[in-house]
C-alpha cells in the first residue's frame, strides 16, 4: 500500500490542507497553516498538505503528514510565491486522498484552484482569510495581481463582474471592484474562517454570503522557545543600553507601517537618547530596503537591523528587550503581537483593533494611535514605567483545540439536518461580534 492508501484505509477524519504560503516563509498564513496542521495531527486526523515548493515533490514527514509540493516562483510582491498547478491536478489529489474536508488557507493561486477542485469533486471547502488584500493593492504597483485568482474562481448567480470587467477594474485599481472580486472568491467556499472580529467585519463590507466563523490562531510557548539567538543578533541587542530596547519582529515591507514607526522612534529619541529600535525579520521589498538604509545612516547605532531569526528563538529575544512595537494597520490578527504578549513583553500597537481581540491578554496594551508622536509617547510610558513581567503557556487557543473547533464548525455547517434559515452559531470559546447573523 502507498502512504496515501494507508491514510485512506483507517477511520480517522481526513483533512486536505492547501496553502499558498508555508514555512520557512514568515507571514501569518504560514504560521496559521503550521498551527492547523499540528492541531489536526494532535487530534489524530489524517492530514495531507499541498503547498508551494521549488519543484513538484511528494513525501510523508515524521508526523505522518502527506506533503505534495508544487513548483512555484517568487514574485515581486514581497517575495510571495506564485504556484503553477491545474485544477485537474488538485482534483486528482483529492480523489487520491479522499478528504472529508479541504482547509484552504487563503485566496491565492493554489487556494482558488482548490476551491474549484472542491466544487468539481463535491468535497466541502473551508476557506481561511488571513490577509489584508486591499493593502497589497494599495501599496504595491503589481498588487492588483492578487485580484486575479479570485476573479477566476467559481462562478455564481449573484451578478459578479465579468472577467473583462475585472481586468479593467484591476488595471485601474478600483477598490470597490476589487472588493467584489474578493467576495466572489469567498462565496465559493462552504465556510469562511477568519482570525478576528476585525476581519469578520470586513466580510460584512463585502456582503459575503458564506457562513463566517471567527477562529483565531493561538500561539504556544513551545513555538517560540527552545533555541537561543544567533551570536551576531544577541551581541547587537546586548551592546545597546538596557532598559531602552524597542523591538519589531516581522516582515519588513511597505504595508507594515515602518515609516510611521521610524517617525515615532525619532520622538522617543528626543526624550531618550539611549533608546534603540531593533528591527528583526526578512526584507524582500527593494523600496523598503532603500528607506531602511537611509534610516540607518541617519540614526546610526540607535537603529539595529537584522535578518530573520528562527521562531523558536523569539522567547530568548523578548527576554533581552523592553517593548514590542508594531505600526502596521493591515494585520488581520497580529500574531507577532500575540507572541510578544505570550512572552510577557508590553506591546504598543498603532492599530487599536488589536486590543480586545483576545480577552484577558491585551488589557495593558497601548494602542490606537493616529500620530507618530502619540505612538512614541506610548512607547515611552512603557520604558519609564514597565509593567510586571509575566509569561504564559499559551495565548488564545492551543493548536489542538483550534483544530477541534474547526472540525466542529465544519460539522455544523455540513450537517444534513441544518436549517438553512437558522442563524450561524459558533461553538463555545470562539469570539464573534454580537451583531452578526449568518445563515447555516
TrEMBL record:
GO terms for biological process: carbohydrate derivative biosynthetic process. One of its GO terms (molecular function) is glycosyltransferase activity. Pfam families: Glyco_trans_1_4, Glyco_transf_4. Keywords: Glycosyltransferase, Transferase. InterPro entries: Glyco_trans_4-like_N, Glycosyltransferase_grp1. Residues 26-222 form the Glycosyltransferase subfamily 4-like N-terminal domain. The keyword Amino-acid biosynthesis does not apply. This is Glycosyltransferase subfamily 4-like N-terminal domain-containing protein. It comes from Planotetraspora mira.
